[in-house]
Amino acid sequence: MSQTVIGIFDNASQAQEAVSQLVSNGFSQDSIDVSAQNATGTTQADNDSRVERFFDNLFDNRDEASSYSQMARRGSMVTVHAKTTMEAQRASQILDHYGAVDVNERAQQFGSTGRMGTSDASSASVPVIEEQLQVGKREVETGGVRVRSRIIERPVEESLRLRVEHVHVERIPVNRVVTDADVNAFQERTIEVTEQAEVPVVNKAARVVEEISLEKEVEEREETIRDTVRSTDVEVENVTGDNFTTGTTAGGIAAGGQTLGGLANESDRDESAFLTSANQGWTSTLKRMKEVEDDYKVSDEDPDVRGWDVVGRNGEKIGEVDELIVDTQALKVRYLDVDMDDSLLDMDDEEQHFLLPIGAANLDYDNKNVMVANLDAASVSQLPAYRGDTITREYEHSVLAALSPGYTASVNENEFYDHDNFNSDRFYGSRPSQR
Q1: Mean per-residue pLDDT over the chain, rounded
Q2: What percent of the chain is predicted at pLDDT more than 70?
């Protein structure tokens, strides 16, 4: 989750010194912006206008934006674009250490009308921005058909019977008496016989033997468009005393190096803390997560394992995480409420739950499984059943005794959760973001 940390300094030399320390502590120069009162290449009016626009975009409250703009115009401003909450806190500490001013205190000195802090007369606003998905249609050319005609020649042949006449002259010797007919024919004459023959006659006639037609048909289909949209997620936390903390947004802001974003009481707990508290008034008791979700939530840095399969040492599923049992004072998960797999139940049992201390397991992030190396289908039935009642210390001792042969209860009850079975580092291992 990206955050923006802003530090305002009285002069440019302090700002440059802070920038040098940021770079030496691993921040890239590209993630750091410096805005001085007399920026090179800009007039005073241009610089003032640019600063005002920056804070106008950041705050909905005009007085609030004016207050921060006034402070930025009086000195030099260092902006750090942090990629994670931890990185934003490191940047905040460095800016504070090297002289970033307290914006709220300085605003009072200059009589600013806008103030961010805990004063009853102040007001602050956080812009909540949400992207909306807009889906439209446009026509694109996806293909087509082209029909082209051309003239080609091909040889053809037909068989035909033709008649041909031939005249033959034949002389036949005879010896007979001349008749009257012969006398009449005894004169000059000519006899002509004509020969005839059939010859082929070729004619060509064009005929339409086929028609090619082009038609278009239109079909409609339903298509689901999937995308992601961004929005500002605002969490509000109660604060006490002089140390104020506001909720985390999609891009946090810091004033004078004081980070406005992150987890409640982050500096008072270790990095493996699993809960974010919005109300510090809860007593030190174990609660089911669904009972306190109005005031607590799973940390953004850690997975919510509810619904994950619980897998024993033989690779077989022994249950599913149904609920988290949380310590609202320590801001930690102590147990997983596991719904035992149906295949392990007796025929008469409809459902059976057991509690698994968080340190007795570890996470398989890739497959979203909770791995338990010292349990299998046989031994899981030896764990005390959990029926959703109030969890007593005696019940907790029985759970640890079932998991750890030779377990001896601690003499000092304050050290009860120091047992390895409650070591959250064993549970989380190397988080995906750290691997």
Answers
A1: 77
A2: 77
**Among 57-71, 110-124, 235-249, 337-351, the least confident range:** 110-124
d(CA 205, CA 220): 47
| Tokens, residue 58 | 């950041």
Nearest 5°: phi and psi at 320?
Answer: -140, 140
Q: Residue 300 in contact with residue 275, Cβ under 8 Å?
A: no
Report the alpha-carbon distance of residue 321 to residue 312 in Å, rounded. 13
Q: Which of 135, 105, 100 is nearest to 17 (CA)?
A: 100
Helix, strand or coil, per DSSP, at residue 352: coil
Question: Which H or E run includes 302?
Answer: none
63 token code pair: 């007085």
Which fold is adopted by the domain 275-434? Photosynthetic Reaction Center; Chain H, domain 2 (3.90.50)
State the amino acid at position 191 in one-letter form.
I
Instruction: Please state whether beta strands 369-371 and 309-311 pair in parallel, antiparallel, or not at all (unpaired).
Output: parallel
pLDDT tens digits, 90-107: 888 888 888 888 776 776
311 and 317 Cβ atoms separated by less than 8 Å: yes
CA distances from residue 46 to 6, 41, 52, 125, 429 in whole angstroms, order as listed: 20, 10, 10, 26, 51
| 355 neighbors 370 (Cβ within 8 angstroms) | no
pLDDT category at 247 given cuts 50, 70, 90 is very low
* Beta bridge pairs of residue 326: 287, 333
Name the least confident of 38-42, 67-71, 211-215, 419-423. Answer: 38-42
- β-pairing, 332-340 vs 317-327, is antiparallel
Contact assessment for residue 420 and residue 353, using Cβ atoms and an 8 Å cutoff: no
What secondary structure letter does DSSP report for 92? H
The domain locations on the chain are 3-129+230-262, 275-434
Helical pair 62-74 and 44-58, crossing angle rounded to 10 deg = 140
Rounded to 5°, the CA angle 307-310-312 comes to: 170
pLDDT at 284: 44
Q: What is the DSSP letter of 425?
A: H
Whether the model clears a pTM of 0.70, i.e. scores above it, the answer is: no
Tell me whether strands 3-9 and 76-82 are parallel, antiparallel or unpaired.
antiparallel
For residue 86, give the DSSP letter: H
pLDDT band per the 50, 70, 90 thresholds, residue 161:
very high
